[in-house]
Design goal:
This protein is of the alpha+beta class and about 300 residues long. It has 8 helices and 16 strands. A hairpin with a 2-residue loop joins strand 15 and strand 16. Bound molecules: zinc ion.
Length: about 300
């Protein structure tokens, strides 16, 4: 049984079948007047999979042929890897911010023989995309990825916020923590009632905003802790990571969170370097963080 529900008028959320941390939601916006469908993210071929998306579309009284576009909040595999198959089978267009183009184009090369530019279209901050009764404004919110976007209907006060804040720590090598902090502050100023998130169920604005505020506190707390560690001795990035994050031994932690947190610690150190508080040096062929002491 596919699990899906109508989370707002004519917006349906398909929940992933497996671990919600590793598999993302797919949203379907139905336009009852002209029978067009928009997908906000579409998951990977593993979860929910194109056949499941089609099954839900049929059960809400539409035809998969009605899919006219997929808007991608970002290009991560759990959100966007089904794009090539969907684009080919329905001839729909896939929208993405240009900074996240490379990874999305990669799925076309990996999963199909089709030229990505036959299907991919770029969107930018401030664009407004009409999807049935909704007017979705593109809000560029880099940090988690450099091309991450949120989609905001100002009148209906609905926000699709993708992976803005999924696990409080996953970002890419090209991104910066300052970008993520600016994006979080941008969202905190937005007047929405409900957030439709990339992972998990819908959240009311006050609950969602509380998480964003906590995230800013966590950033500060971590950096205070890193400086305390470095007061005692110089440390490798992996040592700082293992002191900051408490790991239970699981495959998910080993394969996903540990490498992601390594990048996160690097990003904290870059911020501390910018502030003149710490620096990264080479010692015994390893990258080591050192406290900068001001005499
Ligand atoms: Zn992501």
């Amino acid at each position: 049984m596919v699990k899906y529900k109508e989370v707002a008028d004519n917006i349906y959320q398909i929940e992933p079948k497996r671990d919600i941390k590793l598999n993302a939601n797919t949203f379907i916006i139905a336009d009852k007047d002209n029978k067009k469908l928009t997908l906000i993210d579409c998951g990977s071929p593993v979860d929910p999979g194109v056949e499941t998306i089609f099954e839900v579309i049929r059960s809400i009284g539409f035809d998969p042929e009605n899919i006219s576009k997929i808007i991608n909040t970002h290009s991560h595999v759990d959100h966007a890897a089904s794009v090539p198959q969907l684009a080919y089978e329905t001839k729909c267009k896939a929208y993405i911010h240009k900074n996240d183009f490379k990874m999305l184009a990669g799925y076309f090369i990996y999963f199909s023989n089709y030229h990505p530019m036959k299907y991919i279209r770029f969107i930018k901050d401030g664009d407004v995309i009409k999807c049935g009764e909704y007017n979705l404004k593109v809000v560029h919110s880099p940090g988690h990825t450099i091309g991450h976007i949120c989609l905001f209907d100002e009148d209906k006060k609905i926000l699709f916020n993708g992976d803005m804040l999924p696990f409080i720590r996953v970002i890419e090598q090209e991104s910066s923590l300052n970008d993520l902090i600016s994006s979080v502050n941008k969202i905190l100023k937005m007047d929405f009632d409900i957030a439709l998130r990339g992972h998990g169920g819908p959240a009311k604005s006050d609950i969602e905003k509380e998480k964003y505020r906590k995230f800013l506190d966590v950033i500060q707390e971590r950096e205070d802790n890193i400086l305390k560690f470095l007061e005692k001795n110089d440390m490798r990035i992996s040592e700082i990571r293992d002191k900051l994050f408490n790991y239970k031994h699981s495959v998910v932690n080993k394969l996903f969170f540990k490498p992601a947190d390594y990048i996160m610690v690097q990003k904290h150190l870059e911020r501390l370097e910018d502030q003149g508080k710490a620096e990264l040096i080479r010692k015994d062929e390893k990258n080591v963080a050192r406290l900068i002491k001001i005499d």
